[in-house]
Amino acid sequence: MGKVGFVSLGCPKALVDSERILSKLRADGYEVASDYEGADVVVVNTCGFLNSAKEESLGAIGEAMTANGRVIVTGCLGANPEEVTGAYPNVLSVTGPHQYEAVVGAVHDALPPPQDKFTSLIPPEGVKLTPRHYAYLKISEGCNHRCSFCIIPHLRGDLVSRPIDAVLKEAERLTQAGVKELLVISQDTSAYGLDVNYAEREWRGQSYRSNFYDLCRGLGELGDWVRLHYVYPYPHVDDVIPLMAEGVILPYLDIPFQHASPRVLKAMRRPAREDRVLERIHSWRAQCPDLTIRSTFIVGFPGETEEDFEHLLAWLDEAEIERAGCFKYEPVDGAAANDLPGAVPEEVKEERYHRFMIRQQEVSTRCLSSKIGKTLDVLIDEVDEEGAIGRSKGDAPEIDGCVYLNGDTDLVPGEIVSVSIEHADEYDLWGSRPSVS
Ligand code: SF4
Question: Quick one: CA dihedral 392, 416, 374, 217, positive or negative?
Answer without folding.
Answer: positive
